[in-house]
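Hey, resending since the last one bounced:
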Amino acid sequence: MRREQESRGLTTSDAPEADDAGQEAAPARRRAGRKARETRERLIEGTLLALCDEGVTGITTRKIAEKADVHLGTLHYHFESKDALLMAVLDTLGARLAQQLRLGVAGSRDLDECIERVLETDWIIAERNLAIQIVQYELTLYALRTEGAAWMARRQYDDYIKAHDDAFAGHASGAPAEAIRRLSQAVMAGIDGIILQELAAPDLARSRGAVRDLIAAMQALARTLGLHRPR
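The structure tokens again:
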């Protein structure tokens, strides 16, 4: 081979590099990876739509595939089971909440304002799409009633509470993590109660007033827990 290259005036250094094919394949791999992510996102959104329409007990992978406008085989390629899709939905909802809380508290001047913005953000998210709130509660109960799936419910609330921990921590530096966690747990208990009341007996004026009361209560709790920075 070397003689043939030399007879054509080529040297080993002039010959095509062995990794050229790999370099050419890299963009194709990136495109494939991007397409796979987009398909997974479509399936997660399709699952959310199916859950809003049918509820947890009513959905099937076929209905999810229809909502996502993909072939059933494509769904099973990306997710091995319906439960795997439900877990992906919970992860997505948790990530969205964390992102919205980060944006909501940006620019807060102190912990009182941070608490106010956190609870206002929590309520805005709920009020804009109460159907998603029903889905979240259904997923929690489904996980608790399904053998071996209780960890899904626990993880869901762990993610939500951590998102609140992170939102408060920036204005409670130096405070014990346990104290911040107690505030987050109380906030979650309070906002969950308001949302459930709104779902059971809709009255936006009452619920918005309850959120204002909860803000004041949580600001007082933060003082009791010693979370406010000294002025």
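The mean pLDDT is 88.

Sorry for the duplicate.
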